[in-house]
Amino acid sequence: MSCCAEHQRDRVGVRHTAAKFASRIKEPSPVTESISVPALWQGRCQCGDHTYEASGVPDDPHLCSCQHCTLLSGAPAMAWVGFRKSALTWTSPAGEPSYFSTWPTLHRGSCQRCRTQLTSVADGSDMIMVTIFSLARGAELTPVGHSYRDEAMPWMTITLAPDPQRHT
To answer: Helix, strand or coil for residue 8?
Structure first.
């Protein structure tokens, strides 16, 4: 199974509530103060041909070190977060990015002009994963899991919450 196809399936105990999500947003505020989750998240590719807006609470921010993510990014991991498909709107004249399959049931969206990786969508899922740093406020999201952690580079050390997919 490829990266993010796992994450886009319904998982018992992995869907995060707004309260749990709020604790993963970096805010310089006192603990007693309520943290507000943005009502609208905006993102784009590097060249700006593809822009989008997503509403609602982001789901399952995580890193992935599967072979597909490392080859596509040229990096030891990609950072993903999910939104409901119905909550994401492509707002630029270029519309949706071009999709290609990296697995029989998994499709990645990227800009044909600048080649920015933007999305990952699994067949039959009501979720769409977006690359965290295509979001204007992506730095506010803290990954809580690491898919394919066992395949990560041995020199890569990251402190995260336990991977929700692998219970060891």
So the answer is: helix
CA distances from 89 to 39, 46, 94, 117, 118 (A): 14, 18, 12, 17, 13
Buried b (16+ CB within 10 A) or exposed e, 126-159: ebbbbbbebbeebebbebbbbbbbeebeeeeeee
One digit per residue, pLDDT tens: the chain, 168 residues?
A: 345 544 443 332 233 334 344 444 444 333 334 446 678 999 999 999 999 999 999 999 999 999 999 999 999 999 999 999 999 999 999 999 999 998 899 999 999 999 999 999 999 999 999 999 999 999 999 898 889 988 899 898 876 654 455 554
Q: In what order do the strands lie in the sheet with 51-55?
A: 40-44, 51-55, 88-90
CB 81 within 8 A of CB 61: yes
Q: Are 5 and 122 in contact (CB under 8 A)?
A: yes
* Identity of the amino acid at 122: A
User: What is the C-alpha to C-alpha distance for residues 111 and 168, in angstroms, rounded to an integer?
Assistant: 38
